[in-house]
Amino acid sequence: MNNVDYLIVGSGLAGILFAEVLTRQHKTFLIIDDASQQSSVVAGGLYNPVILKRFTGVWKAKEQLDIAMPIYERLENSLGIKLDHKISVKRLFNSIQEQNNWFLAADKPNLSKFLSHKIITNDNSSIKADFGFGTVLRTGRIDTSLLVQAYKEELDKKGLLFDESFNYNLLDHHQDHLNYNKIKTKHVVFAEGFGLKNNPYFNHLPLNGTKGELITIFAPDLKIDYVLKSSVFLIPIGNDYYLVGATYEWEDKTNAITQKAKSELISKLTKFIKCDFDIVNQVAGIRPTVKDRRPLVGRHKIYDNMYVLNGLGTRGVMIAPYVAQQLFDFIEHKLPLNLEINSNRFE
Ligand SMILES: Cc1cc2nc3c(=O)[nH]c(=O)nc-3n(C[C@H](O)[C@H](O)[C@H](O)COP(=O)(O)OP(=O)(O)OC[C@H]3O[C@@H](n4cnc5c(N)ncnc54)[C@H](O)[C@@H]3O)c2cc1C
Fold first, then answer.
1. Which domain holds residue 125?
2. Could you tell me if 130 and 218 lie in one domain?
3. Predicted TM-score of the model (pTM)
4. CATH number at residue 240
5. Which residue from 89, 76, 126 is spatially nearest to 277, judged by alpha carbons?
6. How many angstroms is it from 228 CA to the middle of ligand 1?
């Protein structure tokens, strides 16, 4: 019998960042993952404290960044890999009106630390940007695909990862622990992303799921070293390769790539770049989005030692470290969960 403090289902950003808190707090754990969801593997990985469509602040942006950045740095050190690529995000302006809206936003107290007051003029002949760009501060990209891969390899080496589907029928409830197969655990944390839909304990929660697709292009004449945001993001990943995306699709809940998404991304991209490019890859995943755009964190209404850690939505990179810490403090230190993220708001 394996005897642990925690059993985590899911090794996406939610599961990994929770495991990271447990490691720091010297708690024992095992993780089960069947690779059925891939949001964290395909994500663009951007962290950006501003919603660039409307020039408004992201919910608890500063708090999230303050918690997240040191944790990603620690993960870089413990895994010996580069995860955090500090890169600026520039918003392409389509009109004078948009420039003015940017300045108005930059004067607001909650945004002034994130939006530069300077308008940058475009000097790159491969880009169409007659009205220039505004720069967002405190932005970057976490290589989430590398993080998931490296973290799982490390868990595997230590014998802490089971590569299989969680079988809910095998869960055996006791007063102060749970048994699952040959595992005895004090707590189970479900961090299944959109896989939550198959979880009989928590599938009543309103997780909608929003499919997203990204393409990778090779564009040797583009030569930009910042993330460019127009109707889509253009993200340099090195050696003249760029990620372009993402799409938003609410009906299709499969992880299959589609021609429709590819055409949409090309059409949007060619509105603001003028150089040639080749498409070399395409990926898709389901973002675990929630009706009210807040995470789902909390305890099962009947079984005290079962928890949900989900609903990271479109911004898992920034929000995962924050919610992982919240859940840990709730379980171990009996601290109340922020009401906006507590899953009991839907009970
Ligand atoms: C195209 C795209 C682009 C994105 N870009 C960004 C971005 O730039 N910045 C950003 O912050 N966010 C981005 N996101 C969102 C981000 O990916 C998510 O918020 C985050 O990755 C969700 O993490 P998660 O761990 O909750 O879910 P997931 O990554 O889906 O992980 C859940 C894990 O649980 C496992 N699992 C599920 N059910 C079971 C079961 N029954 N048994 C065993 N294992 C199970 C799955 O296999 C999976 O590994 C993007 C998403 C997409 C799709």
1. 88-138+210-287
2. yes
3. 0.97
4. 3.30.9.10
5. 126
6. 23
